[in-house]
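We were asked to recover a plausible sequence for a given structure. The inputs and outputs are reproduced exactly as logged, with field labels preserved.

PROBLEM: sequence recovery
POSITIONS: 443
GIVEN STRUCTURE:
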């Protein structure tokens, strides 16, 4: 089936791009332009007509990409036209009226590219990440995967398992012969090395996922300690309501920021205190939950409630920062019991020492995003499949190969299959829809 979609952003724009892919692309372009196809991959200025009425719709650039040398691997074309809603609507309607084409589903062009062998699954996912990127570090990670480094690494490991599997299955030709002890030892040693290699990739502090989704920062503390004010300062806008009335924030408020090049999700939470209000108590539960899930906790108190820090002590670790706000209103000295936490003395109102706090946050961000591997796991799906691969390799190692040959061989098959799921080398139709549904229509 031939598909088409608006590939540029919807709405009014200087230029809009309509993409067409499929076996009817050739005839559609001829019908719309009323002339022969342009040379492949050459921009051709053409008049574009309504197929039914022959009325001129627009004059724009037509690009023709014959199969297999196209993004999708099929015959494909792009129409670059003026980006008015009227022009876009007229072109889409005239394409639909031919009955030769339907509107593409989200990510369908990239899905076709994967199915037709133009890209691997990791690259397909990384293209989606590149489209959604908001910071340079997200661009760098996506481009790194698109260049194929992760695919090469996983595919190399998969081929090692398949090579061992080939050695095992050779016994099928000689069923009466036991595998020599030295061969068995070598096989198990190779499997052990593969297991270590995968574990090293998994031991990454979830850097790839943090870069892709955003580093989570939760601002927690008692009411009126300055949580919402600090949130608004970071955001450079009024995200949270600031009020002297305790308990103003009852839900979790989140904002996505580009924090000096790092993607960050900052959460402003309900003030933590003993409360009889049912709704406020639910907000406090959410505050503790967000604090537990966060990559960094900013625990903020003021000089009037330094004793309150004891309530948050269980949440305080090396990924936490203690901040004492409103020090401009008090002649304040750090209590001895707080000095061990290296607290920051600030005033959000006067913007005092916030630059030092921001420097510390940046330092923690950079440190947390350090990893020994250059192969990034960007999705929980990859992590699950790699862990399942390790489990199968461990099952293999725990078996007596000669006595449990069939079961041991199946363990290797399952291990290879789990690695194949990461790179798209096995039948994974059940996960394709969820992957490509995250794409915008037209990609």
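RECOVERED SEQUENCE:
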């Amino acid at each position: 089936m031939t598909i088409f979609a608006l590939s540029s952003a919807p709405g009014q724009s200087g230029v809009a791009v309509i993409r067409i892919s499929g076996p009817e692309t050739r005839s559609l372009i001829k019908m719309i332009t009323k002339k022969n196809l342009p040379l492949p991959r050459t921009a051709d200025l053409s008049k574009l007509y309504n197929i039914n009425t022959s009325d001129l719709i627009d004059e724009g650039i037509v690009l023709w990409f014959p199969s297999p040398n196209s993004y999708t691997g099929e015959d494909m074309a792009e129409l670059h036209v003026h980006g008015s809603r009227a022009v876009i609507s007229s072109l889409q309607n005239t394409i639909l009226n031919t009955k030769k084409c339907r509107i593409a589903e989200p990510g369908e062009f990239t899905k076709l590219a994967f199915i037709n062998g133009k890209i691997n699954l990791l690259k397909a996912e990384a293209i989606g990440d590149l489209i959604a990127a908001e910071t340079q570090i997200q661009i760098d990670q996506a481009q790194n995967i698109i260049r194929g480094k992760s695919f090469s690494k996983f595919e190399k490991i998969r081929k090692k398992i398949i090579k061992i599997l080939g050695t095992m299955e050779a016994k099928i030709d000689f069923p009466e012969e036991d595998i020599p002890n030295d061969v068995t030892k070598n096989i198990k040693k190779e499997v052990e090395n593969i297991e270590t290699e995968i574990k090293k990739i998994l031991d990454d502090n979830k850097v790839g996922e943090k870069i892709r989704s955003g580093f989570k920062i939760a601002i927690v503390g008692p009411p009126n300690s300055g949580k919402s004010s600090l949130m608004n300062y970071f955001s450079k806008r009024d995200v949270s309501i600031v009020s002297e009335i305790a308990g103003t924030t009852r839900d979790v408020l989140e904002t996505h920021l580009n924090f000096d090049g790092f993607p960050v999700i900052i959460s402003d939470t309900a003030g933590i205190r003993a409360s009889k209000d049912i709704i406020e108590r639910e907000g406090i539960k959410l505050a503790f939950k967000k604090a537990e899930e966060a990559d960094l906790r900013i625990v903020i108190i003021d000089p009037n409630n330094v004793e309150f820090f004891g309530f948050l002590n269980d949440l305080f670790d090396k990924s936490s920062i203690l901040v004492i706000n409103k020090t401009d209103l008090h002649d304040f000295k750090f209590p001895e019991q707080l000095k061990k936490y290296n607290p920051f003395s600030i005033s959000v109102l006067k913007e005092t020492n916030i630059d030092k706090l921001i420097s510390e946050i940046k330092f923690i961000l950079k440190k947390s995003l350090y990893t020994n591997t250059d192969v990034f796991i960007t999705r929980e799906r990859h992590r699950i499949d790699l862990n399942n691969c390790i489990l199968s390799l461990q099952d293999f190692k725990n078996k007596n190969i000669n006595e449990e040959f069939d079961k041991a061989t199946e363990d290797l098959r399952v291990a290879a299959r789990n690695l194949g799921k990461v790179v798209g080398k096995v039948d994974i139709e059940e996960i394709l829809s969820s992957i490509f549904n995250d794409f915008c229509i037209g990609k």
